[in-house]
Amino acid sequence: MSTTTVIKSDVANPALASEGKKKIEWAARNMPVLAQIKDRFAKEKPFTGFRIAACMHVTTETANLMLALKAGGADIALCASNPLSTQDDTAAALVYEYGISVFAKNAVDRDGYYKHLNSALDIKPQLVFDDGCDLVNVLHTSRTELIEGVMAGCEETTTGVIRLSQMAKDGALKFPMIAVNDTDTKHMFDNRYGTGQSTFDAIFRATNTLIAGKIVVVAGFGYCGKGVAERAKGLGAEVVVTEIDPTKALDALMQGFRVMPMTKAAAIGDLFITVTGNRDV
To answer: CATH second-level architecture of 191-274?
Structure first.
């Protein structure tokens, strides 16, 4: 298995590479555990001879993961799992500063998105890293000739795990996948704390509204719901939780939140946030 490939890419602006490198380096200073893993990988080279296709959010955090995998000897092709989160400077830096194949542009259209998925798969991967199951889905539909060479993969988000679980139930999944999404640390850091914070960051950017004094209705009290409710409370809001699972609803009540059906909450809420995956809740 060879790890020598031509660096192919499709990024928005190569001139952004130097700025992207600075941001990647800054993020690395705030990721000490990954830094230790990268150092170990650099010594042990566990991925020497392996080709990895990754479909993930192209951000500085993902960039540092890709650098850790490269340090471990992997040959990598990265595409974006969500074009709206793609950082064009990060994508450019990975290509022109670090020599990693990246196919990602912010706000690319649907055709461009699937073109990038296929470009990442052109590496003929033995391992796949997915976020949403789109990469695995393409492998099982339009790029089936590559399946035989895929040893395994991993999926990092709830939506992707749901899709993979159904594929496995139907007997359609052709290679093993690890549900990274199901790990305790993923639930804690990503869902509870990450989503809790990023949700309000998005609200502030979109509305510039003041949260203090408002009644914030949070639909769902899973890991993401807990994080959103906690952040809303910390910002001075009165928090109302709606939840169909009686145990989770009781948990919300015991944590000091008001709990009621959405039919009642709709009449009093100022801001409504669904963390159920269903916008029509």
So the answer is: 3-Layer(aba) Sandwich (3.40)
The arrangement of secondary structure in 10-182, i.e. its CATH architecture, is 3-Layer(aba) Sandwich (3.40)
DSSP code of residue 235: T
Q: Which residues pair with 76 in a beta bridge?
A: 52
User: Kind of pairing, strands 215-219 and 238-242?
Assistant: parallel
Q: Nearest-CA neighbor of 8 among 118, 143, 146, 102?
A: 102
| Residue whose structure tokens are 């290679």 | 175
49 dihedral zone (left: phi>0; alpha: psi -120 to 50; beta): left
Q: How many whole angstroms from its chain centre is CA 99?
A: 22
- DSSP run (H or E) holding 200: helix 196-207
DSSP 8-state assignment for residue 171: T
- Spatial neighbors of 126 by CB under 8 A, at least 6 apart, are 1, 50, 51, 52, 149, 150, 151
Contact 228, 255 (CB under 8 A): no
Residue with structure tokens 């695995």? 136
pLDDT tens, residue by residue, 109-158: 999 999 999 999 999 999 999 999 999 999 999 999 999 999 999 999 88
In order, the DSSP letters of 82-121 are: -GGG--HHHHHHHHHTT--EEEE-TT--HHHHHHHHHHHH
Q: What is the pTM of this model?
A: 0.85
User: Nearest 5°: CA angle at 279, between 207 and 255?
Assistant: 80
The number of angstroms, rounded, from the C-alpha of 73 to the middle of its chain's C-alpha atoms is 23
What is the helix (H) or strand (E) element at residue 272, kind and residue range?
strand 271-274
Tens of pLDDT, residues 167-204: 999 999 999 999 998 899 888 988 899 999 999 999 99
Is-same-fold flag (10-182; 191-274)?
yes
